[in-house]
Design a protein that fits this description.
This protein is an alpha+beta fold. The protein is built from two helices and eight strands; from the N terminus they run ααββββββββ.
């Protein structure tokens, strides 16, 4: 050891530096296996899609009653912006008298309990508009009127 008197000091210094480095640079945690995304079955996906079409899209003032509408399945609706409103309709022809005073798109769809369109697109206009469309209600039951608008609208729906 006389030939290398500083060897023990050098080894101790290297060990100290190594331990100090490990204290401030711990090893990373072990890698976790990637999460497996769950894929819903067709029934769950169909239920979710149907629920999405009948759920309210945005906060909308509830429909305000207007003058009495004639017959069962008749509604006087008004609001602002997007809405999805549940309706009980009677089989037969139904007239939708619509007024829109916004500047953007005005789209109205009538959906059955399965979320399928009834009567195609009831309205698809840009800018202020008013008009009437008659739609054949295939059977008495629950329906949803889906409104996509950026301004105030009124819909008077009268059944047979």
């Amino acid at each position: 050891m006389a030939r290398f008197p500083l060897l023990p000091v050098f080894v101790a210094l290297l060990v100290g530096i190594g331990l100090g480095w490990l204290m401030f640079h711990p090893s990373p945690p072990p890698a976790q296996p990637p999460a497996t995304p769950s894929v819903p079955d067709a029934a769950t996906a169909a239920t979710a899609a149907t629920a999405a079409t009948v759920a309210p899209i945005a906060t909308v003032a509830p429909p305000t009653p207007g003058p009495p509408a004639a017959g069962p399945g008749a509604y006087n609706l008004d609001g602002f912006g997007k809405a999805a409103l549940a309706l009980d309709l009677v089989e037969g022809p139904a007239a939708l008298r619509m007024t829109y005073s916004g500047e953007g798109n005005f789209v109205v769809r009538l959906l059955d309990a399965k979320g399928e369109r009834v009567g195609g697109s009831v309205a698809n206009e840009i800018g202020a508009w008013s008009g009437t469309k008659t739609v054949k209600i295939p059977s008495t039951g629950k329906y949803v009127i889906d409104i996509d608008a950026s301004g105030p609208w009124t819909i008077i729906l009268t059944g047979s």
